[in-house]
Predict the 3D structure of the following.
Amino acid sequence: MPSISREEVAHLARLARLDLEPDELDHLSGQLDQILGAVAQVAEVAADDIPPTSHALPVTNVFRDDLPRPSLTPESALAGAPAAEDGRFRVPQILGEEQ
Amino acid sequence: MTTAERVNPSSLPGFDDAIARFEPVMGMEVHVELGTATKMFCGCSTEFGGDPNSQVCPVCLGLPGSLPVVNGTAVESAICIGLALNCDIAEWCRFARKNYFYPDMPKNFQVSQYDEPIAFDGWLDVTVPGADATAEPDVYRIGIERAHMEEDTGKSLHVGGATGRIHGASHSLLDYNRSGIPLIEIVTKPIEVPPAVAPAVARAYVTELRELIKALAVSEARMELGQMRCDANVSLRPVGTTAFGTRTETKNVNSMRSVERAVTYEVRRQAAVLTEGGSIVQETRHWHEDTGETTAGRAKEEAEDYRYFPEPDLVPIAPSREWVEQLRTTLPEPPAARRARLQAEWGFTDLEMRDVVNAGAMPLIEATITAGADAAGAKKWWLGEISRTANERGTALEDAGITPADVARVEELVAAGSLNDKLARQVVEGVLAGEGAPDVVVEARGLAVVSDDSALGAAVDDAIAANPDVAEKIRGGNMGAVGAIIGSVMKATQGQADAKRARELIIERLGG
């Protein structure tokens, strides 16, 4: 039976830059554990002769020709943004980090 | 934080002192932006310099429900790069999601390749000049771990900070035009070479890789435009030991010279830390072009923190062996072989050829020769007058304002006797100054050599009349004195006289 620890959920929350309260951590740890448990049932029905797959269809090499297609206008690209400035998406200060 | 943050470089050991105690091991990671017309997974244009967010769509903005489709040309380019680096090409591979939370990727993941790169296990030979000008160059074989496909990130603009960096910024602005442009990341195996040449080998590797990419015509690989970006991993270990030390990764070292300087600096810095009993922190570091130093960036996230998993929206790539072999037949002559061939054809010494290559003049000289000039003449102009002007203006040779055809035309005029060396230089100056093609400059500046006998004869007569003593010596059989009369003729004609014809006319008049 899978189980995800409270520490692991706290770590994931940190990677996702989510500030979770202790009670939220308790709550989400339980929920995530249930989700993992549901997914793990797949392993129970998968026989040894079924290789793992990342895709439902036995298809490879689906390619697109290198031909430009129209893009969105900057206006429509930014239409759903919570904030914009100078034609760019505006985001809050990035936690003093640099990638 | 490191124990040697913002150290005073003068307090660091010299490079020679550092390598007397420690051996560097390097690893280079180079990102190349492919020159495809469209992005990796959507049809948005990759053209540089568009208005912010004018080359974006639901796919590269990561909008819900959008589905990526792979750019076939980008896959071909990746395979060609792999083949040119003597790699094996995967028979089957997938894309993977690299998950991280940062606004330069609007999806919160970057599509990359993880444990199934399209190309792996290759090598590239690089050449480092010998110990002195007469020594044979040394060749080192750099192992290639892998070359994989991924997508570029958007561009952040940090607002409110003092230096445009994140530190102190109040907010950031994102332009996603670059997000999704195809990248190939090329990763070396650990590079273990004689410590004294390590920085030069790092530089030579990036230089040779760039030549290769350009020869393949899969990217212009212009580092100043970010089309090729280099991260340098460096670790030290005590001399005589074999286990690798802790490494740092210096990001965005974006010129050949900077690669060499950054490796040199990290060797000296790490040697100082280790000598003082400190330990190296595994971290990314920032390169500062102005001071030649690196400073600490973020502590390296462990690979598992990226929670890679196969990209479910893309099907696997399985290049058939027929396809791979067909692409192999399209590969150009490898740059090193091409250099050797041209050097032999042109009759240049190793040193001359190195100057030509370092100046970036090889293709220009080749084109000039194709346009009719000889090798020595072509080299003289491109490495002389034109290099000087390009350096003064801070431009590339090919952007100096003169074409190989122009240079060949100047050489043709010299060979025909219409220009002498001095006039030819003025013509080249004129072309470089934007006055037009060589013939236009000759016409406009009136630079043709004076060789018709009436005009030249008058100048000769004047010169003889003005120098009776010299004329007398020549009449007496002192042919060495002819030069003085020629000098006088040249002066009177502002250097435009045909010196050879002038000599003939002087001797005609004064006997000989």
